[in-house]
Amino acid sequence: MLWVVCWYPQSPISYRDLELMLRDRGLSVNHTTDHRWIQAYAPELEKRVRPHLRLTNGSWRVDETYLKVKARWIYLYRAVDSRGRTIDFRLSAPRDTAAAKRLFRKAFAQSNTVNPRTITVDKKVAYPKAVADMKQDKRLWRFSKLRQIKYLNNIVEQDHRRVERLVRPSLGFKRLRTAWNILVGYKTLAMMRKGQVKGIGGDDIVAQAAFVDALFDPAA
To answer: Which residues form the Integrase catalytic domain (predicted)?
Structure first.
């Protein structure tokens, strides 16, 4: 089960592909069961991985891309640091100041983040208002600098492409909750591949698998 939960979110494959891969290994698991495992355990995996992440730095890059959920465009807000390490992410139907503020509040609540020195965004008008409101509410450091420089956001743009590559085989999402749980799996495995887990290299697949096993082992 953990193999399914870790393999699907990092590879551009469908649930039917995953069913065939398991059958090749002598396991008969229906693709709908694979889907239920992802829905149940991907959020739990993120919850258990978060306390083991390295600190991100104070130079944030924030942007959003869009995904289709039941024929409706939904926005995926994302923040990474200057090294490309994932800070946080959030799905939102509206694309406005309130959505940007919700991303910031969620990111500030994580144990591996620091109050940013700089926040780099594109030219959308929602971000200056969100940053000003967060400073007024004393949720954001008052000396944090907002930079609206599009080319400096190439790091987060590259991360968008990774998500789009993984989403394509799924042929879209049917429900917002389903989309969120799968995206949590994508992002959690991406954080591990980026070397964000303390003491484990981003290319050390064996150590990462052992780490995940230990997270779910009641005797560990």
So the answer is: 47-168
118, 60 Cβ separation under 8 angstroms: yes
Whether the Cβ atoms of residue 4 and residue 38 lie closer than 8 Å to each other: yes
Residue whose C-alpha is closest to residue 72's, from 91, 100, 47: 91
> What is the location of CATH 3.30.420.10 in the chain?
59-160
What fold is seen in the domain 59-160? Nucleotidyltransferase; domain 5 (3.30.420)
Q: What backbone torsions phi and psi does residue 215 show, to the nearest 5 degrees?
A: -65, -30
Number of separate helices (H) and strands (E) present in the chain = 8, 5
The rounded distance, in Å, linking the Cα atoms of 79 and 90 is: 9
| Model pLDDT for residues 128-166, shown as the tens digit of each residue | 999 999 999 999 999 999 999 877 778 887 777 777 788
